[in-house]
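I trust your eye. Have a critical look at both lines of this record:
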Amino acid sequence: MKIRQLYLICLCAGIFSKAISSYGQERFSFGLTAGYGFTGETSQTQIPPHINPCPACVWDPTFHGLAFPLGGMVTNWDIHGPIRLQAEFLLTGFGVRVIDQTYGNYKRGIIYFKVPIDVLYMLKAGPGNFQLGVGPYIAKALYGVSRDAKMSFGNNTNNDMRGGDWGIDGRAEYITQKGLFVSLDYDAGLENVLPAAQPGNAIRNYDVDLSLGIFFIRRYHKGEVVIPDK
């Protein structure tokens, strides 16, 4: 996980470096976005019943997704022709309602700082553009509550969950000439967010996000601001 985090951090740094160097020379835009995500988890039990170290425990939870808000900054700039690169820097809630035969029913909620980075292909559609894209995302847990207690993040036996997550982000987006946009995302987590010190089981995150946003600075080309047609 640390190698993947380092790779994506370097990618983010490269994106910002490219944005700064191209500011005033190539088309670049940034704005704000906010919305709601329907979050959930998939679980997998890997320990056969006959070697279960806790025969009295039945680790067979059912996860029901909950809706949580998200919001942050979005950047978008042209690479070549209809190809664009888009990165978001979001604070997003993540939570589930858990029906667990071992611990009883409870809710778990986590606040993540998440960075999806997508390569988009732009198509002309009516008065605006339709964009489809895919790319990686990385997330860092900032705070969490489970069973009315503060969660502990790490990779040790006394930790509830790992503090990091990563996976694949798929995006469909429509943006108008005025810079308004609506976006639908699906994030599929690839990281087992249970600590390695808790072997035998796996939990992976997923969420579907619906968000609205606006780009405040839409086009820059050779130092001149290009104002969209009214």
Summary: The CA atoms of residues 11 and 17 lie 10 Å apart. The helical segments are 2-22.
